[in-house]
Amino acid sequence: MKITSYGVNAVNAYKNQVRNAKSNTNKASFADKIEISKAAQEMQGVSTYSTERANHVQQLKKDIASGEYKVDARKVAEDMLKYYRF
């Protein structure tokens, strides 16, 4: 039996398909959105607190180095009692 390949190369269904690429009409503008949760907003407030705390610590360091810092013994004792009682 003889098999001939008549027109086998001419049959390529994928090659002959025409693609309609209309990129301009199908474009939809997608914009990224960012939503910040309430917890994240509260955390942003903490950053201002940390800068204030850092400034306070720097001032305390200067006072201690210069010898101007005085410890209030009564306040320390009250805070210790509050901590250990509760």
TrEMBL record:
Q: Report the sequence similarity comment from the record.
A: Belongs to the FlgM family.
The positions making up the signal sequence are none
**Domain of life here?**
Bacteria
The answer to whether keyword Transcription regulation applies is yes
Transmembrane segments annotated in the record for this chain: none
| Residue ranges of every copy of the Anti-sigma-28 factor FlgM C-terminal domain listed in the record | 32-82
Write the protein's name. Answer: Negative regulator of flagellin synthesis
Q: Which organism is it from?
A: Lysinibacillus boronitolerans JCM 21713 = 10a = NBRC 103108
SUPFAM superfamilies in the record, alphabetically?
A: Anti-sigma factor FlgM
* InterPro entries, A to Z: Anti-sigma-28_factor_FlgM_sf, FlgM, FlgM_C
What Pfam families is this protein classified in?
FlgM
Keywords (alphabetical) are: Bacterial flagellum biogenesis, Cell projection, Cilium, Flagellum, Repressor, Transcription, Transcription regulation
